[in-house]
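Hi U.,

Before I forget, here's the chain from the pilot set. I'm dumping it here mostly so it's searchable later in email.
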Amino acid sequence: MPTNGFRHRIVSISTIVFVMCLLLLMASCDNTPDNITTTNDGSETFTAEPTGFKVTVHGFMRSFEASPDAAQLSFSITGMYVNGKQKTGVLITADRDGTMYIAIDISSLLGEEMSKLRTIEADIAIINAYDDFYAVSGEVSAIDAAGSTVAESVWSVYLAEKNPNIMRLELTAALPSGPHNMLIISKIVDNAQAAGLEQSSLFISEFRFYDGNGELLTVDGDAGFIAPAGFGEPDRSNLDVLQQEIPIDGARGTSNGWGQAVTLLTSKNGGVFDATNLVNSIVTVYYTSSSPPELILQSWTEGKPDSAGWAKVAPYRVNDSGNIAQFRFDDMVEAFGTDDFEQFLDQLFVGDTGAELAVFTVTYAEVEG
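Structure:
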């Protein structure tokens, strides 16, 4: 009998251990949002949850307001529950309508380890006060000290169950050592705004910076923001004073090697750009690059002027910071061979002039006065 009792106890203990292992296995299979990685091509992978730089200060962040569609931002460290998890991080809210552009001084954060950086991750959540969930998406770019885009990707938080999500950027080239390497996070699409509601806030709780071997780099959490020349409010030096600038929908993108960062099909061809908006206007391009961009006017309409097949226009004004270029109507007419843009202009481009180019916004407006 003692033997049987001992055997029964073994069975009972085995059963308990089995149940505990089953519960642990079930817990390990809980694919929480923190383990969802959105890669550059938009696919998802599930990874372990490494411990990176917990955001408890925000001195290394600033609002990037060099683009006319930029919102003014407020930053505050706060603790909050996100999908049932208590987290501490930086809450980023917009003080006015516009696009969120968040600049992060990664040179100051990483210091001497800057040149080792190959991959950046951040846990990013959206916060709003509505019962319904509204998805958001945006872009993230690594910009070097010369203003060139070294890498870019997209991020999104598109399901309530996947809030927060992991933003991920893999560098295609090493960023140089030294100051002024920036990470620019933008929130481009906000379904709450599209529904006529107040735009969602962003909440970033952790950053992870990896070297080429996948090892976490050391971060200086007390780093401040060392602003490059021309950072912040737009540098209007050398530029014409304009009436209210009107942004052109879809006018953003990147290119290099004499490519085209922005392609705008005119409305007569089913596009969104109305060519008549160019008449007597100044076109202003907000960009980062080591050399100014150019406008390209293309026509394939029968009867077009001889020079109108592919007409390039150089900027007539560039600010001292080299990040805003203005193009005037008279120069466009001279290059295009006619002022009848409504009939003959089929496509408008913003192209680079050999150096990497990132275009944030393109506007049109008449000169003030």
